[in-house]
Amino acid sequence: MAMRPRVLSWPGPLSALRPVLRHWSESFFFDEVPMLRITQALAMVQNAILALSAMALFALPLITAYDVTLRYLFHAPTIWATEISIYLLQFAVFMTPGALLADGNHLRVSFWIETRTGLTRRIAETVTALAILPYAAILIWFGTSYTLRAFDRGMLSPTLLQVPLWIAYALIPLGGALLVLGVVLKSLTLWGEQDKAEARA
Amino acid sequence: APALVRAQSEQVIKIAYNLPEHHATGTYFETLAKEIAARTAETSVKLVPQTFPDGQLYNDTQLPDAISTGATHIGQVNLGFMAGRDAQLMRVWAMPFLYDTWEAEWAAEDSPAMRNAFATQLAKYDHQMLGWMAYGTVEIYTNSPVRLPSDMQGLKMRSFGLDATQLLSTLGASPVTMSSQEVYQAMQRGTIDGCLTGPSSVLSRKLFEVTKYGTNVAMMRLPFVASASKMWWDMLPEDVKTAVGEAAMVAQKASRDQGKADSERVADRLREAGVDVADLTPEERKAWGEAAAPLLADYKAKTGEAGADILAAVAAANAAHPAS
Amino acid sequence: MISGSIVAILLGVLLGCLVAGVPIAFSLGLAGAATIASASGLPFLVQIPLTLQRALADPVILAVPMYILMGEILYRGKVGQQLFDVANAWVGRLRGGTGVSAVTAFTFFAAIVGSSMASVLTIGRIAIPEMEKAGYPKRLSYGLSVVGGSLGILIPPSIPLIIYASLASVSPAQLFLAGLLPGLLVAALLSVWAMLAAPPPNTIETAPWSGKHALKVTLRALPDLALPVVVLGGIYLGIYTPTEAAGIGVVLALLLTVVLRRSLSLRDLPEVMISATRHSAGLLAIMVGALVLGSALTLIGLPQFLAKQVMEAGVAPWVVLLIMNLAWVVLGCFLEVISIILITVPVFVPVAVALGFDPLWFGILMVINMELAVITPPLGMNLFALKAILPEERIETIIRSALPSLLIVLTVLTLVWFFPEIALVLTRL
Ligand code: NA
Ligand code: NA
């Protein structure tokens, strides 16, 4: 099962790498404070997306019940219930993978990685997070061209609602961008907590 | 764009469509694939078509986008899944009671006015139009008898695509959106009162078990379009383009012939299966035409001269191929 | 047209990512992307946003988050307690009575929710401590819980059955009917197991059985007991579709827990919503990833290739079915149920239909296999759910204790295989 990154102990042989990595993180971020701020800002964005998605998904049963009631009792179903529900679902599914990644909520096969400890574990966790970047890049690049195409041609949904399709399509590249932020946030958390632990030590 | 086309080379191309191989639209693409393979064997690029039937790769909704973006080289376009300003002129395809006969439909589609208008509009979506195929007719299937437009008032009808939905609203029915897999059960349990669909899918989805009444009026005679991805097409050498164009003509004829033959048999097969299929009187037909008139008026208003040209071609085709 | 090196790339990326611990959703997506890019070139990666759009375009998928939300509300609203109390009041005094009560509660809860994890969490949390009190060995109490929870996907309503129905073009309502008897068969075998393996009841400590008391408990739980009747009843009366039933179920669950029982306060709702969202979005991200991989498999023609090989090899249909079952078992160890369904159904169903198998029966066989998948390690959702209830217990102990219960599922799988009528008889009424 997915797990939250936690403060891990340093293993013997790999501890040689420790000063190098510490130097890297220091020289890149100069010190702990701005890094913490970045982490907090990223976490806030992801939490806001998660809250919006929760509202979107909570609306689904309400919309469904409303539509069923209108159809069954008044023989007058809405023309929008199903279509709007699908957009709400797309929002929740395409926009949240980054937030789930940062929180360690994605399901994964963890029998190998959970036998690792210390720096190996951290490196492994970082590599599995970075491995996602090519997928995020595909979502951003091809999702953007797909969205722009729909925008340029003024494409509308083939329903009575006639919703501009670029709005729905844009969720894919936006979700890809949030996924990149999720990778960044997860990496910062992984390496940032160690810095705090060292600062305390 | 797909991989660069090299001279004297061989290229595997994808042909994607949404219906089964044995359907008249499937016949189009399977014939097209066979003809392309044969006719490009000696051209500067040898094309090796690979077909993906049954929506295996993309379904109705994605196919227009898949062709636009080059995610398939050739594909089926169900115009009901295209909407927006550039699709407006093509909406004529789904106008109810537009054609009197199959031959009139084909003549209108092959007229320069209509064919060029569609090719031009589709090019705006990066489609290179290859030709027409026969989807077949669309009829009304319900659990209460329907002979006149007034019988549709208040019926909950499953609908899909823009045109069928607009027609249902115009007729006073309530369009309901649901997955095609749920239609059988929804008809059986009365969640909906009926659906607007092709007789062939009533057979293939066994809807005849749960529907009591149907019409045999060719409410719509739908053509689908075959398009190639324009990005790919524009890179093809001229001799290959010519060969593909010839292949498309053969496929178009095969599909239309089968579409007409299938359609002539299907009403009787539904009757054998226990559906009360109504042949309407000329007066009843006229009432339907009048009820659907607002759609045609709306089309004329929105398309102006270009639309008028197409409708003139349709009128000429109907005059040349009247119902006997 | 199948190239061995592309299949090697596909498997390499997929297994490499999975074993390294890359989330399943992205392992599937990356393997799909690598396959598309190596088979057709980078520009064809535009297939991915198209597939993503398609993944959520079918309205039946709306049932997934709604059933998950319903499960979460019922779990937080402690609806499991009422169901367990009713069963316990009637049969709790028998030998194995606590176990039978747990199985009954699992069965009933399965008729409300569409997934297995919600079942394990909701009923298991109440039943496991009771079984512990009654001196049940872990093998029995954990086994009853993981298999009892898996009934959630076999007894209707069921998310896997809805997705199978959509992919295989069969009626979800018919498929629901087909799942009912096999599900009850699993429940019956679990009950027999409980009666045989439970320690004798400690009659001195407990009060004697009283019909009046049992009736009182039942009446009190009537709204809970009515929940599945209303949800499934509405489907069969044609008031709503199986997809819409999920939405109606959420509204009813809210009425039951927030208004009637007040076991869930409005202040708890945001947490319930967020938790359900994490669960839904995680599951659907996997589904989307599986569809990307599935579309890549289609692109390279693997399903058609395998189908052709099988049909041309001329092996006996039962051998083909056995191979498919083994594939499900192996995939079941490493993947999550929905992704297995999305990847295998487009490959298997055309072959199964061509071999003359009934697609309804085939779907039920598949979902019984999925009951195995939620229990087999290393990736067994019900094992994880059990671990969530028992944070102190080692996952190794949970796995070792739960594994023998697989025999029950295998028995039912064999029975339904050799007597297809167990699944089909209700669909013919
Ligand atoms: Na269930
Ligand atoms: Na498993």
From TrEMBL, chain A:
One of its GO terms (biological process) is C4-dicarboxylate transport. It is a multi-pass membrane protein. The chain crosses the membrane at residues 44-64, 84-102, 123-143, 163-185. Its main location: membrane. GO terms for molecular function: transmembrane transporter activity. It comes from the Bacteria. Residues 62-190 form the Tripartite ATP-independent periplasmic transporters DctQ component domain. Keywords: Cell inner membrane, Cell membrane, Membrane, Transmembrane, Transmembrane helix, Transport. It is found in: Cell inner membrane. The keyword Amino-acid biosynthesis does not apply. InterPro entries: DctQ, TRAP_DctQ. GO terms for cellular component: plasma membrane. Belongs to the TRAP transporter small permease family. Part of the tripartite ATP-independent periplasmic (TRAP) transport system. The complex comprises the extracytoplasmic solute receptor protein and the two transmembrane proteins. This is TRAP transporter small permease protein. The lineage of its organism: Bacteria, Pseudomonadati, Pseudomonadota, Alphaproteobacteria, Rhodobacterales.
UniProtKB/TrEMBL annotation, chain C:
The keyword Membrane applies. GO terms for cellular component: plasma membrane. InterPro entries: DctM, TRAP_DctM. Residues 11-422 form the TRAP C4-dicarboxylate transport system permease DctM subunit domain. It is a multi-pass membrane protein. It is found in: Cell inner membrane. Keywords: Cell inner membrane, Cell membrane, Membrane, Transmembrane, Transmembrane helix, Transport. The chain crosses the membrane at residues 103-128, 140-163, 175-196, 217-239, 245-260, 281-303, 315-335, 340-357, 363-386, 398-419. GO terms for molecular function: transmembrane transporter activity. Part of the tripartite ATP-independent periplasmic (TRAP) transport system. Belongs to the TRAP transporter large permease family. The complex comprises the extracytoplasmic solute receptor protein and the two transmembrane proteins. This is TRAP transporter large permease protein. It comes from Antarcticimicrobium sediminis. The lineage of its organism: Bacteria, Pseudomonadati, Pseudomonadota, Alphaproteobacteria, Rhodobacterales.
